[in-house]
Specification:
By secondary structure, the protein is α/β, with parallel strands linked by helices. The protein has 11 helices and 13 strands. An 8-stranded parallel barrel has the order 1-2-3-4-9-10-11-13, surrounded by 7 helices. The radius of gyration is 21 Å and the shape is globular.
Length: 354
């Protein structure tokens, strides 16, 4: 039997196509209530897709009458969807540039609790003047600097997630002891960009470390990608070459090809850059080629949530299962780490008392 591939989808408004929200099948108000995203994620979960990512940026969407000029916060949307799902992983995009690492890690850990161990984050950076103006703390920086900072953010986040040992919470009302202070550890972290002192304000989450994902779309991103649990390779060209670059630097991350897809309707693709336009058979063939090249999975970015996700869930994934490229539908709830075959990290501070 073939090695099982990881499958995932991207949630981006009504879809990656800029006119997706204008289709007769879409209720535009459902975009901003989260109902459209929830429906897509539930369809993906029912099909056995492993996780969903959620697009976000610090920059506001363009004020263009032909497009939706608002976007839901990715972390909030994932938290909204978590109680209405039970098996699929939830990975919001969080921009680590300009924002406070302490609060970022606490938010991701909280999502892990809300989802009962199905959370992660897609660490992103920003070099734009607009994003810098939104926060107002500092000037924009070059890509190399933002990714170097991102590596520190990932590092300190993992230290803070370890600052509470798994058994630090006692909850013994009879003795009045609720926390074992010896199992909470003080983090004293300093990077060129920030300082963090003290333990996290959130206890260690179900997965220990929620999953860290990185989109490897620039050479500078490699320094964080090698530290990640998941790496996304955007686009369908030079897959083997880019995979080799990641594997040469680290064999730890699971590597997925991230491909924008518009299925069974070439008319919608007019004038829009989409990686794959065509039928499910051709896409399944491509995915089979990537599997043979050594990738661990595929990250599908649908042009329309209402049109393409049903095709992915009802036709593509069953076809991949028929070809033994993906495993059976996971019927019971489990952590995202368990689902993807990743170990729960040991706590670096356990056993250091006394």
């Amino acid at each position: 039997m073939s090695r099982r591939l990881i499958t995932s989808i991207e949630i981006d408004g009504a879809g990656g196509h800029p006119a997706a929200w204008r289709g007769a099948e879409v209720d535009p108000s459902a975009i901003l209530t989260g109902e459209l995203a929830l429906r897509a994620v539930q369809r993906a979960e029912a099909a056995g897709i492993d996780f969903a990512t959620f697009v976000d940026t610090l920059e506001a969407p363009a004020d263009d009458a032909s497009r939706v000029s608002a976007r839901l916060d990715a972390l909030g949307l994932a938290a909204r969807i978590a109680p209405s799902t039970s098996r699929i992983g939830l990975i919001p995009t969080l921009t680590v540039t300009h924002t406070e690492p302490f609060h970022l890690q606490a938010s991701v850990a909280t999502l892990d609790f809300v989802s009962e161990g199905r959370a992660g984050w897609l660490a992103e950076v920003s070099s734009s003047a607009e994003a810098a103006a939104v926060i107002g703390r500092r000037e924009p920086a070059e890509a190399a600097e933002t990714w170097r900072e991102a590596r520190y953010v990932v590092d300190v986040s993992r230290q803070l997630w370890d600052s509470w040992e798994d058994d630090a919470i006692i909850r013994d009302a009879s003795t009045g002891r609720f926390i074992d202070r010896e199992r909470i550890h003080y983090v004293d972290y300093e990077s060129p960009n920030f300082k963090v002192k003290g333990p996290s304000i959130v206890p260690r989450s179900p997965q220990g470390h929620p999953l860290t994902a990185v989109r490897f779309n620039t050479p500078e991103a490699l320094q964080v990608a090698v530290e990640a649990d998941l790496v996304l390779l955007p686009g369908v060209t030079e897959v083997e070459e880019r995979l080799a670059v990641v594997r040469a630097a680290s064999t730890t991350p699971k590597v997925l090809v991230s491909v924008s897809v518009l299925l069974d309707d070439e008319e919608r693709a007019a004038g829009v850059g989409v990686d794959y336009v065509g039928g499910v058979d051709g896409l399944a063939d491509l995915i089979g080629e990537w599997q043979a090249a050594g990738v661990d999975g595929v990250h599908l970015r649908p042009a329309s949530l209402e049109l393409d996700v049903p095709v992915i869930a009802e036709r593509l994934v069953p076809l991949l299962r028929e070809r033994e490229l993906v495993g059976p539908v996971v019927e019971r709830a489990t952590s995202l780490r368990n689902r993807l075959g990743l170990k729960r990290p040991a706590n670096r501070y356990a056993g250091s008392r006394g």
